[in-house]
Input
Amino acid sequence: MPMPDRFVFVCINERDPSHPRPSCNANGGADVFNALREEQGRRLATGVKVVACGCLEACMVGPVVAVYPDDVHYGGVTEADVPAIMDHLEGGEPVDVLRIGPPEWELRPPDMGY
Ligand code: FES
Output
């Protein structure tokens, strides 16, 4: 199998519900992962590798998705966003409305103390 053109990492991290930071999986991360895999299969998008991963540290805006080598990050992704993201993964433009950046990585629950 040739090296993929793009890797898409989907956070499916799951913490104890008592943890102050939310978890992407509790917000639908696994559903997004599965929907991306299914859409990839429907499109026969062999240049894309969909990978489930752990915490990407932008937990406050999860589910978080990271696309490399594009260095594009998406937050608050739902299954409904998958076709647009797959368009990007197949060489289209990034989905601007879903993009997150450094400010989203700085977000913390107010009671965490850091
Ligand atoms: S739990 Fe998904 S980014 Fe932290």
